[in-house]
Amino acid sequence: MAMSEYDIQSQRYLTRLEAARDPVTGRFTQGGGHPGRKVGSRNKHRRLSAQERLLEYEARAQVSTDPVEGLARIALDGQYDARTRLSAWKALARYIYPQRKVVDSSADDQEAEAVHLNDAELEYIVQNENSFTEP
Questions:
Q1: Residue 21 pairs with which residues in a beta bridge?
Q2: Which pLDDT value is given to residue 63?
Q3: CA 97 to chain centre
Q4: Which is the most buried residue in 20, 40, 67, 69, by most CB within 10 A?
Q5: Which pLDDT band holds residue 111 (cuts at 50, 70, 90)?
Q6: Is 77 a domain residue?
Q7: 5 HSE (CA, 13 A, CB side)
Q8: CA 80 to chain centre
Q9: Helices assigned H by DSSP within the chain
Q10: By the 8 A CB rule, do 58 and 66 touch?
Q11: Which tens digits make up the pLDDT trace of 52-78?
Q12: What residue numbers bound the domain in which 92 lies?
């Protein structure tokens, strides 16, 4: 029975693979010429990286793919309705201004110093309730 072309290639591959291994440890030898992809070679399926594709698209279409710049264009363009422009402004605000945090103003955090008044001071306050001067 004759061997197919695929069988011949796989046999050659296995022969080269075994020749590249150290016979004692079974590991590949340093610079043993073992088969595999070279370091730094590109994938076959993806010709360009994502960044290179974006740059190529920007050059071809003459527009920027920056999302913040796109939102600013929508917010300033009069052809969009007010609701769309308002939502673009709201989305842009997160990139322009820092977000504010909630501040808890409970009594535990702001403990006031207790003021002790004697009877004469309390009576003065009651008699002059509209006055803001101290005794």
A1: 28
A2: 72
A3: 17
A4: 20
A5: low
A6: yes
A7: 0
A8: 29
A9: 5-19, 50-61, 67-76, 82-96, 119-127
A10: no
A11: 777 777 788 777 777 788 888 888 888
A12: 66-98
* Contact call for residues 70 and 78 (beta carbons, < 8 A): no
Please check whether residue 86 lies inside any domain of the structure. yes
The alpha carbons of the chain give a radius of gyration, in whole angstroms, of: 39
Token pair 């022969």 is found at 15
Q: Residue 124: which of 115, 132, 116, 112 has the closest Cα?
A: 132
Q: Is residue 89 part of a domain?
A: yes
Identify the pLDDT of residue 113: 63
Q: Give the position of tokens 């994938």.
A: 43
Strand partners, 28: 21
Q: Are 35 and 17 in contact (CB under 8 A)?
A: yes
The number of domains in the chain is 1
Count of Cβ atoms closer than 10 Å to residue 71 Cβ: 19
Q: State the sign of the Cα–Cα–Cα–Cα dihedral 30, 33, 39, 45.
A: negative
Q: Give me the pLDDT at residue 36, please.
A: 67
Q: What percent of the chain has pLDDT over 90?
A: 1
Structure tokens at 78: 């009069």
127 has pLDDT over 70: yes
